[in-house]
Every structure is written in structure tokens, then in C-alpha cells.
Amino acid sequence: MSYPLDVSSDLASPTAVPHIASGEGVMSHADCIIGAAVFDLSGLPKEYFTTAESTDVGWVQTIFQALGLQSLLMSSLRLEGFHHAVIHGAEYQAVVVRQKIRYTALLIRRTEPNSISDSLISWSQEFEPTLLRSHPRFRTM
After folding, report:
1. Residue 5 CB coordination number (10 Å)
2. What's the pLDDT score for residue 102?
3. Domain span at residue 62?
4. What pTM value is reported for the model?
5. What is the CATH number of the domain that holds 111?
6. Domain count within the chain
7. How far is CA 3 from CA 24, 44, 77, 79, 123, in A?
8. Sheet (strand 139-140) strand order
9. How far apart are alpha carbons 31 and 114 in whole angstroms?
10. Please, where are the H alpha helices in the chain?
């Protein structure tokens, strides 16, 4: 059984993001990513990726805190099966997924109030964040 964790937070960035309505064009899931962070299974951050659109990595602290809260809740309530969390901010959202050997957090443009779809979460669970090391849009921090 899956227990998604939905936490509100301020993930604001100094750069403005253009609003893209669903009827104006199609963006792939990869096009929506403007930042990424990799955490080990203990919840410790290991690697960050930024883009020109979002150079601030302050949102990673929110993810770190959410993973700590998730761990505490899972152990105290004896729950299993964490698969993903969605953290909402004013301009951005973050999707955190548990993968086999890590947690991966993806900072996503907020294009619609409920723009985190099931297909995006499924895609995120299969996403290989190390590919961002050689991608021209991303810088490793």
C-alpha cells in the first residue's frame, strides 16, 4: 500500500516562470525539470543539479526535512511502502520518489494547480538522475 506524503512549503525562486496552460503546447516530463537532488536511502543529500532557470538549491533543505519526517512517521506508525511525496511551493513543486538505491527529488515548474500527474510520478520513479551530469541544461553542484 502506498502512502503519498503531501507537504506545503515555499519553494520560491528568484526567477519568474512563464505560465504554460495545458492547451498551449505539450511539454515532456524532462522539459519540466528545473532542478534535481539525489539522496541516499538514509535521506542524506548526495548530489544537486541546477539549471539557469533555478540556481537556488534552498529547496533541497525542504526535501531533506520531508524525508526525515517521512522516516519518523514510517517507523513510529510501522508503515511500509513509501513511493513518493509531492511538495508544493508558490512557483514550483518538487516530486520525491524512492528508487531502488536512492531517493530522487525533481524540482518541477508549476504550470497548473495540480500539475503532478500519475504519469509524471511513474516516470520519476524510473528516471536516472546521473544522466543530468552530461546534460547541457544542468550543472552539478
Report:
1. 17
2. 93
3. 5-140
4. 0.73
5. 3.30.450.190
6. 1
7. 33, 21, 12, 9, 18
8. 5-8, 84-88, 92-98, 103-109, 33-39, 45-50, 139-140
9. 17
10. 29-32, 59-77, 118-126
